[in-house]
Amino acid sequence: MLRLCEANKGFYVKAGQFISSMRRIPKEYSVTLSSLQDQAIPFHFEAIKKVIINNLHKEFSELFLSFDEQPVAAASIAQVHHALLKDKQEVAIKVFPDYRFDWAVSEFEKTIAMELDFVQEAKNSERTAKNFEKKKFIRVPCVYWDLTTKQVLTMQFCDGHKVDDVEYLKEIGINPAKVAKALVELFAEMIFVHGFLHGDPHPDSHKIQDLGEKFGVGKYSRYFPVIFMGRTIDSKSAIGREMSLEEKSKLKHELKLLKMDDISSFMESLPTDFLAILRADGHLRSIISKLGAPQHVRLLSYAKYAVYGLTVEPNTQSDYTISGMYEV
Q1: Which of 103, 212, 243, 305 has the CB geometry, 3.0–4.6 Å to 188, for a possible disulfide?
Q2: Alpha-carbon distance 281 to 275, whole Å?
């Protein structure tokens, strides 16, 4: 599977990345495919160089004092190179080659098109910097707009480590659990305050049903608590506690009655924004689990920012926020 993703690149790598981040797949799969997160096989430098020249309309010698041909990171549909501009400013250049995806279904094509537009990503980055300008623990690299196009993104170069690098965090004396809490609160604020979802944190099954009707998923809304909280809709256990054996048995029986058509109908009925949030939530679960923090930290942060989100004006400029920001 790893060789298949590496050979086909692009969207195959993206699929492999998603699988590797899921919590409930065998460890052998997640560990093997995790190399795709930022160590995918890079594109040849000549292809990257051609894209930069064609987009910025200048030769390399006019743009850079130096340019590292080996990428700092190579992911699914883009790779990042370290470079020095003529004024000796250290930058990170993110580039993706030409892709054709006429074969893709319309909604998937729309989502991928957003991720293949670095101008949109740059705008999202600046918007995030403004949204979190009062948060001292968040640093957003500035954008070099004169060196940015849909295919080339140039930003301030910032040294750093992956957020789930537990060994490094412990080595420099940072508590991984505190990092998990900060990360979850960051995403909770984006979703419930800056973004497009305002939720009601109370465990009221009638309100969940009403929300399901608004989303167009009807009877399937009873599975929202399972997706986000790991509990059934009728659960009386405290947040963060596992389901009782009785709950597990009842849920298992219900799920056996579902058909593939039911699952497809459920996913197709959800708003596309909600699907992006589901993906983000899945990644967050995986990361905070690796950092050793309990899952109720995530749930309590969601509840806290959902309540706060109800007290502020909705952000009407929420297009692409979650999907775009998740890639930045």
Answers
A1: 305
A2: 10
| Spatial separation of the C-alpha atoms in residues 249 and 258, rounded to whole Å | 15
Mean pLDDT of 168-197: 84
Mean pLDDT within 126-154: 90
**Total-model pTM:** 0.58
Percent of the chain past pLDDT 90, that is, above it, reads 20
**pLDDT of amino acid 17:** 77
Contacts of 293 (CB under 8 A, 6+ apart): 176, 177, 180, 181
Torsional sign, CA 302, 231, 27, 4: negative
The answer to whether the beta carbons of residues 220 and 269 sit under 8 Å apart is: yes
223: tokens are 């599975």
The backbone torsions φ and ψ at residue 47, rounded to the nearest 5 degrees and listed phi first, read -70, -40
Confidence of residue 215 (pLDDT cuts 50, 70, 90): low
What pLDDT is stored for residue 198 in this prediction? 26
Report the chain's mean pLDDT, rounded to a whole number: 75
Alpha helices in the chain (DSSP H): 2-8, 10-21, 27-33, 45-56, 60-63, 106-115, 118-131, 166-171, 176-189, 205-215, 224-229, 245-257, 260-269, 272-290, 296-309, 321-327
Instruction: Evaluate whether 149 touches 56 at the Cβ level (below 8 Å).
Output: yes
Label residue 72 exposed, middle or buried (CB < 10 Å: 0-12, 13-18, 19+).
middle
Q: Which residues are catalytic?
A: 200
Instruction: Read off the pLDDT band of 160 (50, 70, 90).
Output: confident
CA distance 184 to 281: 9
Q: DSSP for 127-178? A: HHHHHTTT-TT---PPB-GGG--SSEEEEE------TT-HHHHHHTT--HHH
Amino acid at 159: D
Longest dimension (CA), the chain: 69
